[in-house]
Amino acid sequence: MKKCTYLLFPLLLIAFLSGCSDDDELTNVKLAEVTRSIFYAPQYVALELGYFEEEGLDVELQTIPGGDNVMISLLSGASDIGLVGSETSIYVAAQGADNPIINFAQLTQTDGTFLVSREPIEDFSFDDLIGSDFLGQRVGGMPQMVGEFVLKENGIDPQEDLHLIQNIDFANIASSFVSGTGDFVQLFEPIASQFVEDGVGHIVASFGEQSGNVPYTVYMASDSYLNENEETATKFTRAIYRAQQFIQTASPEEIADIVKPYFADSDISLLVSSIDRYQAQNSYAEDPLLEEDTWEQLKAIMDEAGELPADIPYESIVNTEIAETVINE
Protein backbone atom coordinates (compact mmCIF):
# COMPACT_ATOMS: atom_id res chain seq x y z
CA MET A 1 0.00 0.00 0.00
CA LYS A 2 2.75 2.43 0.87
CA LYS A 3 4.55 1.70 -2.38
CA CYS A 4 1.40 2.47 -4.38
CA THR A 5 0.89 5.67 -2.43
CA TYR A 6 4.46 6.85 -3.12
CA LEU A 7 4.03 6.14 -6.81
CA LEU A 8 0.70 7.94 -6.98
CA PHE A 9 1.87 11.14 -5.28
CA PRO A 10 4.38 12.19 -7.98
CA LEU A 11 1.76 11.58 -10.65
CA LEU A 12 -0.75 13.74 -8.81
CA LEU A 13 1.90 16.44 -8.34
CA ILE A 14 2.74 16.45 -12.05
CA ALA A 15 -0.94 16.71 -12.94
CA PHE A 16 -1.39 19.58 -10.46
CA LEU A 17 1.59 21.50 -11.80
CA SER A 18 0.48 20.92 -15.38
CA GLY A 19 -2.90 22.33 -14.49
CA CYS A 20 -1.30 25.41 -12.97
CA SER A 21 0.83 25.90 -16.07
CA ASP A 22 -2.25 25.86 -18.31
CA ASP A 23 -4.02 28.41 -16.12
CA ASP A 24 -0.99 30.68 -16.14
CA GLU A 25 -0.52 30.70 -19.90
CA LEU A 26 -0.71 34.17 -21.43
CA THR A 27 -3.41 34.97 -23.97
CA ASN A 28 -1.84 36.05 -27.25
CA VAL A 29 -3.04 39.35 -28.72
CA LYS A 30 -1.86 40.41 -32.18
CA LEU A 31 -1.68 44.23 -32.10
CA ALA A 32 -1.20 46.28 -35.28
CA GLU A 33 -0.09 49.90 -34.96
CA VAL A 34 -0.39 52.12 -38.02
CA THR A 35 3.07 53.64 -37.48
CA ARG A 36 5.84 53.73 -34.89
CA SER A 37 5.52 57.07 -33.13
CA ILE A 38 6.41 58.69 -29.81
CA PHE A 39 2.82 59.94 -30.08
CA TYR A 40 1.91 56.43 -28.86
CA ALA A 41 4.17 56.56 -25.80
CA PRO A 42 1.55 55.11 -23.38
CA GLN A 43 1.40 51.94 -25.45
CA TYR A 44 5.15 51.39 -25.21
CA VAL A 45 5.05 52.14 -21.48
CA ALA A 46 2.42 49.41 -21.04
CA LEU A 47 4.62 46.99 -22.99
CA GLU A 48 7.88 47.84 -21.24
CA LEU A 49 6.53 47.98 -17.69
CA GLY A 50 4.79 44.63 -18.05
CA TYR A 51 1.23 45.91 -17.65
CA PHE A 52 -0.07 43.55 -20.34
CA GLU A 53 1.67 40.52 -18.81
CA GLU A 54 0.19 41.36 -15.42
CA GLU A 55 -3.22 41.12 -17.10
CA GLY A 56 -2.32 37.72 -18.52
CA LEU A 57 -1.72 38.97 -22.06
CA ASP A 58 1.11 38.34 -24.48
CA VAL A 59 0.86 41.34 -26.83
CA GLU A 60 2.57 40.78 -30.17
CA LEU A 61 3.20 44.21 -31.69
CA GLN A 62 3.67 44.83 -35.39
CA THR A 63 3.72 48.04 -37.41
CA ILE A 64 1.48 48.04 -40.49
CA PRO A 65 1.81 51.34 -42.39
CA GLY A 66 -1.44 52.77 -43.72
CA GLY A 67 -4.84 52.88 -42.08
CA ASP A 68 -6.41 50.90 -44.92
CA ASN A 69 -3.86 48.13 -44.39
CA VAL A 70 -4.62 47.99 -40.67
CA MET A 71 -8.33 47.65 -41.52
CA ILE A 72 -7.60 44.79 -43.91
CA SER A 73 -5.55 43.06 -41.22
CA LEU A 74 -8.39 43.39 -38.68
CA LEU A 75 -11.12 42.30 -41.07
CA SER A 76 -9.13 39.28 -42.23
CA GLY A 77 -8.31 38.22 -38.68
CA ALA A 78 -4.55 38.62 -39.22
CA SER A 79 -4.59 41.12 -36.34
CA ASP A 80 -6.81 41.15 -33.26
CA ILE A 81 -6.57 44.82 -32.26
CA GLY A 82 -5.50 47.84 -34.28
CA LEU A 83 -4.20 51.24 -33.21
CA VAL A 84 -5.17 53.65 -35.96
CA GLY A 85 -7.11 56.82 -36.70
CA SER A 86 -10.79 56.45 -35.83
CA GLU A 87 -11.80 57.79 -39.25
CA THR A 88 -10.89 54.42 -40.71
CA SER A 89 -13.73 52.73 -38.78
CA ILE A 90 -16.15 55.22 -40.34
CA TYR A 91 -14.91 54.35 -43.83
CA VAL A 92 -15.47 50.65 -43.15
CA ALA A 93 -18.93 51.19 -41.64
CA ALA A 94 -19.97 53.37 -44.59
CA GLN A 95 -19.27 50.44 -46.91
CA GLY A 96 -21.91 48.39 -45.08
CA ALA A 97 -19.52 45.89 -43.51
CA ASP A 98 -21.23 42.87 -41.97
CA ASN A 99 -18.51 42.77 -39.31
CA PRO A 100 -17.85 46.46 -38.53
CA ILE A 101 -14.76 47.74 -36.79
CA ILE A 102 -15.54 48.94 -33.26
CA ASN A 103 -13.64 51.67 -31.37
CA PHE A 104 -13.20 50.64 -27.72
CA ALA A 105 -10.24 52.52 -26.18
CA GLN A 106 -8.84 55.94 -27.04
CA LEU A 107 -5.09 56.56 -26.81
CA THR A 108 -4.53 60.09 -28.13
CA GLN A 109 -6.97 62.98 -28.07
CA THR A 110 -5.42 65.68 -30.26
CA ASP A 111 -3.72 65.87 -33.60
CA GLY A 112 -0.05 64.99 -33.25
CA THR A 113 1.47 67.04 -36.07
CA PHE A 114 3.35 70.32 -36.06
CA LEU A 115 3.79 72.95 -38.74
CA VAL A 116 7.45 73.24 -39.68
CA SER A 117 8.81 76.05 -41.85
CA ARG A 118 12.01 75.90 -43.82
CA GLU A 119 13.00 79.42 -42.79
CA PRO A 120 12.75 80.96 -39.31
CA ILE A 121 9.67 83.18 -38.92
CA GLU A 122 9.25 85.66 -36.10
CA ASP A 123 5.68 86.22 -34.90
CA PHE A 124 4.27 83.54 -37.20
CA SER A 125 0.81 84.08 -38.65
CA PHE A 126 -1.08 81.60 -40.80
CA ASP A 127 -1.16 84.33 -43.44
CA ASP A 128 2.55 83.57 -43.88
CA LEU A 129 1.45 80.38 -45.65
CA ILE A 130 -0.27 82.19 -48.52
CA GLY A 131 1.43 81.45 -51.83
CA SER A 132 3.78 78.87 -50.30
CA ASP A 133 4.53 75.28 -51.26
CA PHE A 134 2.89 73.22 -48.50
CA LEU A 135 3.96 69.60 -48.12
CA GLY A 136 0.87 67.98 -46.63
CA GLN A 137 -0.31 64.53 -45.63
CA ARG A 138 -2.19 61.72 -47.38
CA VAL A 139 -5.70 62.62 -48.59
CA GLY A 140 -8.39 61.12 -46.33
CA GLY A 141 -6.09 60.58 -43.33
CA MET A 142 -6.51 62.36 -40.01
CA PRO A 143 -3.35 64.51 -40.33
CA GLN A 144 -4.50 65.87 -43.69
CA MET A 145 -8.08 66.47 -42.58
CA VAL A 146 -7.14 68.15 -39.31
CA GLY A 147 -4.46 70.17 -41.10
CA GLU A 148 -6.92 71.53 -43.64
CA PHE A 149 -9.52 72.13 -40.91
CA VAL A 150 -7.04 74.27 -38.96
CA LEU A 151 -5.99 76.19 -42.05
CA LYS A 152 -9.60 77.02 -42.88
CA GLU A 153 -10.26 78.04 -39.26
CA ASN A 154 -7.42 80.53 -39.71
CA GLY A 155 -8.73 81.93 -42.98
CA ILE A 156 -6.56 79.88 -45.35
CA ASP A 157 -8.11 78.01 -48.28
CA PRO A 158 -5.72 75.07 -48.82
CA GLN A 159 -6.77 74.62 -52.44
CA GLU A 160 -6.65 78.30 -53.42
CA ASP A 161 -4.09 79.99 -51.16
CA LEU A 162 -1.39 77.29 -51.22
CA HIS A 163 0.44 75.05 -53.61
CA LEU A 164 -0.65 71.91 -51.76
CA ILE A 165 1.56 68.86 -52.32
CA GLN A 166 -0.13 65.57 -51.37
CA ASN A 167 1.31 63.01 -53.78
CA ILE A 168 4.15 61.84 -51.50
CA ASP A 169 3.85 58.71 -49.36
CA PHE A 170 3.72 59.25 -45.60
CA ALA A 171 7.06 57.47 -45.10
CA ASN A 172 8.80 59.82 -47.57
CA ILE A 173 7.38 63.20 -46.52
CA ALA A 174 10.22 64.08 -44.14
CA SER A 175 12.99 63.09 -46.58
CA SER A 176 11.27 65.04 -49.37
CA PHE A 177 11.33 68.18 -47.24
CA VAL A 178 15.02 67.63 -46.45
CA SER A 179 15.75 67.30 -50.16
CA GLY A 180 14.15 70.68 -50.84
CA THR A 181 10.45 70.05 -51.48
CA GLY A 182 8.11 72.54 -49.85
CA ASP A 183 8.37 75.75 -47.83
CA PHE A 184 6.26 74.24 -45.03
CA VAL A 185 5.62 70.68 -43.92
CA GLN A 186 3.28 68.93 -41.49
CA LEU A 187 5.25 66.51 -39.27
CA PHE A 188 4.91 64.27 -36.24
CA GLU A 189 7.44 64.10 -33.43
CA PRO A 190 10.26 63.27 -33.00
CA ILE A 191 10.98 64.21 -36.63
CA ALA A 192 9.83 67.80 -36.08
CA SER A 193 12.27 68.24 -33.19
CA GLN A 194 15.00 66.48 -35.18
CA PHE A 195 14.57 69.03 -37.97
CA VAL A 196 14.89 71.88 -35.47
CA GLU A 197 18.05 70.37 -33.98
CA ASP A 198 19.57 69.79 -37.42
CA GLY A 199 18.71 73.29 -38.62
CA VAL A 200 16.49 71.88 -41.37
CA GLY A 201 13.30 73.54 -40.16
CA HIS A 202 11.55 75.51 -37.45
CA ILE A 203 8.36 74.58 -35.55
CA VAL A 204 5.95 77.50 -35.91
CA ALA A 205 2.57 76.03 -34.89
CA SER A 206 0.85 72.97 -33.43
CA PHE A 207 -2.14 71.49 -35.23
CA GLY A 208 -3.08 69.72 -32.01
CA GLU A 209 -3.43 72.97 -30.10
CA GLN A 210 -5.39 74.54 -32.92
CA SER A 211 -7.90 71.75 -33.60
CA GLY A 212 -9.11 70.82 -30.11
CA ASN A 213 -9.90 67.33 -28.83
CA VAL A 214 -10.67 64.54 -31.30
CA PRO A 215 -10.42 60.73 -31.03
CA TYR A 216 -7.23 60.83 -33.05
CA THR A 217 -5.82 57.34 -32.52
CA VAL A 218 -7.96 54.61 -31.03
CA TYR A 219 -7.75 50.90 -30.29
CA MET A 220 -10.32 49.03 -32.32
CA ALA A 221 -11.28 45.50 -33.24
CA SER A 222 -13.89 43.74 -35.31
CA ASP A 223 -17.32 43.39 -33.78
CA SER A 224 -16.98 39.61 -33.82
CA TYR A 225 -13.63 39.71 -32.01
CA LEU A 226 -15.00 41.89 -29.22
CA ASN A 227 -18.08 39.70 -28.84
CA GLU A 228 -15.93 36.59 -28.49
CA ASN A 229 -13.07 38.14 -26.50
CA GLU A 230 -14.62 40.79 -24.27
CA GLU A 231 -12.54 39.72 -21.27
CA THR A 232 -9.32 39.97 -23.28
CA ALA A 233 -10.29 43.43 -24.57
CA THR A 234 -11.07 44.53 -21.01
CA LYS A 235 -7.69 43.31 -19.76
CA PHE A 236 -5.99 45.07 -22.68
CA THR A 237 -7.81 48.32 -21.89
CA ARG A 238 -6.94 48.05 -18.20
CA ALA A 239 -3.23 47.86 -19.06
CA ILE A 240 -3.53 50.88 -21.37
CA TYR A 241 -5.39 52.85 -18.69
CA ARG A 242 -2.57 52.17 -16.20
CA ALA A 243 -0.07 53.48 -18.75
CA GLN A 244 -2.22 56.55 -19.43
CA GLN A 245 -2.28 57.35 -15.72
CA PHE A 246 1.48 56.84 -15.51
CA ILE A 247 2.05 59.23 -18.44
CA GLN A 248 0.05 61.98 -16.75
CA THR A 249 2.43 62.24 -13.80
CA ALA A 250 5.79 60.97 -15.07
CA SER A 251 8.44 63.35 -16.36
CA PRO A 252 9.38 63.39 -20.06
CA GLU A 253 12.83 62.13 -19.07
CA GLU A 254 11.40 59.13 -17.22
CA ILE A 255 9.03 58.25 -20.06
CA ALA A 256 11.74 58.63 -22.69
CA ASP A 257 14.02 56.27 -20.81
CA ILE A 258 11.29 53.62 -20.70
CA VAL A 259 10.28 53.81 -24.37
CA LYS A 260 13.79 54.24 -25.81
CA PRO A 261 14.00 50.58 -26.98
CA TYR A 262 11.25 51.34 -29.52
CA PHE A 263 13.20 54.28 -30.96
CA ALA A 264 16.73 52.95 -31.24
CA ASP A 265 17.71 55.50 -33.90
CA SER A 266 16.44 58.54 -31.99
CA ASP A 267 18.54 60.54 -29.57
CA ILE A 268 17.14 60.48 -26.05
CA SER A 269 17.05 64.28 -25.91
CA LEU A 270 14.73 64.33 -28.94
CA LEU A 271 12.40 61.84 -27.31
CA VAL A 272 12.32 64.01 -24.18
CA SER A 273 11.47 67.18 -26.11
CA SER A 274 8.82 65.34 -28.17
CA ILE A 275 7.10 63.89 -25.12
CA ASP A 276 7.25 67.29 -23.43
CA ARG A 277 5.44 68.87 -26.40
CA TYR A 278 2.73 66.21 -26.39
CA GLN A 279 2.25 66.42 -22.64
CA ALA A 280 2.05 70.22 -22.77
CA GLN A 281 -0.83 70.15 -25.26
CA ASN A 282 -2.60 67.19 -23.57
CA SER A 283 -2.26 64.91 -26.58
CA TYR A 284 -2.12 61.77 -24.44
CA ALA A 285 -5.66 60.88 -23.37
CA GLU A 286 -6.09 60.64 -19.60
CA ASP A 287 -8.35 57.61 -19.91
CA PRO A 288 -9.54 55.26 -22.68
CA LEU A 289 -13.12 56.56 -22.92
CA LEU A 290 -14.04 57.92 -26.35
CA GLU A 291 -16.69 60.54 -25.67
CA GLU A 292 -19.52 61.51 -28.01
CA ASP A 293 -18.68 65.21 -28.30
CA THR A 294 -15.20 64.42 -29.62
CA TRP A 295 -16.75 61.91 -32.06
CA GLU A 296 -18.96 64.70 -33.42
CA GLN A 297 -15.88 66.93 -33.73
CA LEU A 298 -14.18 64.18 -35.73
CA LYS A 299 -17.13 63.96 -38.13
CA ALA A 300 -17.22 67.76 -38.48
CA ILE A 301 -13.53 67.75 -39.46
CA MET A 302 -14.10 64.93 -41.95
CA ASP A 303 -17.14 66.69 -43.40
CA GLU A 304 -15.23 69.96 -43.78
CA ALA A 305 -12.54 68.06 -45.68
CA GLY A 306 -15.16 66.45 -47.94
CA GLU A 307 -14.18 63.00 -46.65
CA LEU A 308 -17.19 62.01 -44.51
CA PRO A 309 -18.79 59.14 -46.48
CA ALA A 310 -21.80 58.79 -44.18
CA ASP A 311 -23.09 60.15 -40.86
CA ILE A 312 -22.18 57.10 -38.79
CA PRO A 313 -23.82 57.28 -35.33
CA TYR A 314 -21.53 57.24 -32.31
CA GLU A 315 -23.27 54.30 -30.64
CA SER A 316 -23.05 52.10 -33.74
CA ILE A 317 -19.26 51.72 -33.84
CA VAL A 318 -18.09 52.97 -30.43
CA ASN A 319 -18.08 50.61 -27.44
CA THR A 320 -17.89 52.61 -24.19
CA GLU A 321 -18.72 49.75 -21.82
CA ILE A 322 -15.20 48.33 -21.74
CA ALA A 323 -13.55 51.67 -20.95
CA GLU A 324 -16.22 52.58 -18.41
CA THR A 325 -15.77 49.24 -16.65
CA VAL A 326 -12.02 49.75 -16.37
CA ILE A 327 -12.25 53.39 -15.26
CA ASN A 328 -14.88 52.64 -12.60
CA GLU A 329 -13.03 49.70 -11.02
From TrEMBL:
Keyword set includes Secreted: no
What InterPro entries does its record include?
A: SsuA/THI5 (IPR015168)
Assigned keywords, A-Z: Signal
Annotated SsuA/THI5-like domain ranges read 41-254
Q: Show which residues constitute the signal peptide.
A: 1-22
Q: Name the PROSITE patterns on file.
A: PROKAR_LIPOPROTEIN
- What Pfam families is this protein classified in? NMT1
What family does this belong to? Answer: Belongs to the bacterial solute-binding protein SsuA/TauA family.
Instruction: Please identify the protein, giving its name as recorded.
Output: ABC transporter substrate-binding protein
Instruction: Name its species.
Output: Natronobacillus azotifigens
